[in-house]
């Protein structure tokens, strides 16, 4: 295209500013002036159009990064300014279309009118150009802030994509070792729609939302990668736990078989109150161990199918069941041991409880001539309970188990008084 020719945005075709020669003295001068005015108006129109396009990019940048009232006001101001630009552009286009300066028979008076109209159109274009420039200068702080915000988007997006790639590679590496990771693969696939939105960018979703989405993708992808990397070790640990639980279940079954002799000893040497609550332990232990072994078989099947979450849940259930069974089986032997000890020498429990009461009484009297009634009353009751429990040991078949429980309860009541006193004095 030759110098001075542009295609307008209004579909008017090429505005040619190439000069041509006329002959005829004064008319020639008027035609030349009109052509010069046309060239100047075209240049002003082009500059204004270019500036408006540049400003539109700035407004879009601000809108993508800033949702503040100032940003919305700037967008509204740009729309209003755009209407004024359209108005002066329309005047310019009409002036250009009204006069064919290339006509050979163009009269000088017509050329003069054309020059005047084109000059006025140019002046209006330049005036609005000035408004646009001032408007753009006023936007600079908002634009600087928006560009700073937008600068965060690209690094955040790249970090998120790198994390997704690392998670995918980790899953491939795990599968290569024969370990499935279907749940992790499903979680990774679920990030696909989020990645699509991330790629759509801040222009569509805003800077804050885009950066937050990138951070979420990053965290989720890193979690998937880390879990995938641990899967082989996790599988090995699950195998070890399954073996250990099978061994423990078998040991508990053997121990449950030895509860009956312990119960027989309790029945022979102590009153019914000391062992009646343990009567069902052997039967319940065998039943509970059988249930645990059934769950272990379910866990093994889940392990073969690599349903890791199910395996973990079953293992925890088995462990809890075996813990409860272990406690129940141990209770019989522990009961016999404690009852034998108190039957030989009940004074050890008595002295232990008396010491706790006396220690609490000394604390209650520290710095006082008389104790606080709310402290003295439960301590006096503890003494009375101790004496009643000791008196209950007289007779042919004392309830040693009740005695032991009463001693524990008395010491617990005394401990609560001690804690109350220390708390009050600590806040004083």
Q: What does this molecule look like?
A:
Strands 1-2 form a two-stranded antiparallel ribbon. The protein is an all-alpha fold and 428 residues long. The chain has 14 helices and 2 strands; from the N terminus they run E-E-H-H-H-H-H-H-H-H-H-H-H-H-H-H. The model is unreliable at 1-24 (pLDDT under 50). Strand 1 and strand 2 form a beta hairpin.
In short:
This protein is mostly helical and 428 residues long. It has helices at 26-65, 69-98, 108-150, 153-176, 182-189, 192-200, 202-205, 207-257, 259-269, 281-304, 308-344, 347-365, 373-391, 400-427, and strands at 6-7, 14-15.
Sheet of most strands: 2 strands, antiparallel
Mean pLDDT: 84
Distance between the termini: 96 Å
Spans of 5+ residues with little confidence (pLDDT < 50)?
Answer: 1-24
Number of strands: 2
- The residue fraction in helices comes out at over 70%
What structural category characterises the helix and strand content? mainly alpha
- Rg, Å, rounded: 47 Å
